[in-house]
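--- STAGE predict ---
source: upstream dedup step, 1 unique chain passed
mode: sequence only
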Amino acid sequence: MRQTSFAVIGSDARQRAAAAYLARLGYPVGGEEEAPGAGAVLFPAPCSDPELLCRYAPRCGGIAFVGAPSEAVREKAAERKIRLVDYFADDALAALNAIPTCEGAIGILLSRRERVLWNSRVLVVGFGRIGKLLAQRLAGFGALVTVAARRPAQRALAAALGYRVQSTESLEETAPGFEILVNTAPAMLVDQKVIGRLPRDAFVLDLASAPGGVDLAAAAAAGVEAMRAPGLPAAAAPQTAGRFVVQTVLRMMEEMEQDE
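--- STAGE serialize ---
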């Protein structure tokens, strides 16, 4: 791949780690002042501010790598003819990010509860990338894992892997039997009815992308401890998350060069 200069925008731990990793790999790396002349500008994720994009967009054919850009950011990029690439749309990065997401989730469960995961009755809602990995990790701790999935194929796979299974349509019915509920599905499945059936000492963790899949207001009203944990890769393991982003961006650039 051609040697490219980078500008990294943002100062959170993941962005700092990404800049440091790029420098260790030998790439010229700058910050906001170098953005206009950089070959690639790495914006933070998620990115919802069109003005941030406009302020630091590269010129002279550079690429703006943006994580999960909002529709407003996409529209502004099209209007200004900014070459925008969403690195969060990469399937490989999504799979890798499931690793720190699951480890961060388990860290929350261990720190927020006064009981071990071993022999705890845990319901994992959703069986996508994160749900699959989380169920495996929880079972490794000795938790009694049940997977709630919408599609029959997902439930069949979960059963084949040794988990108890149920449909998401039966959440309200089975809720009283769980000490922990972790939602990974990007839909409001854990609503007031489900919350109302959980034991009062249950713990609910929502890992779904915004706007989430747990009615937190209903949980507060019912006295059930619940929390959302968005952006766990950056929060739980910024060094790893930053490296994953850089590896993804470099691979995407190499693929773009091959297509040109």
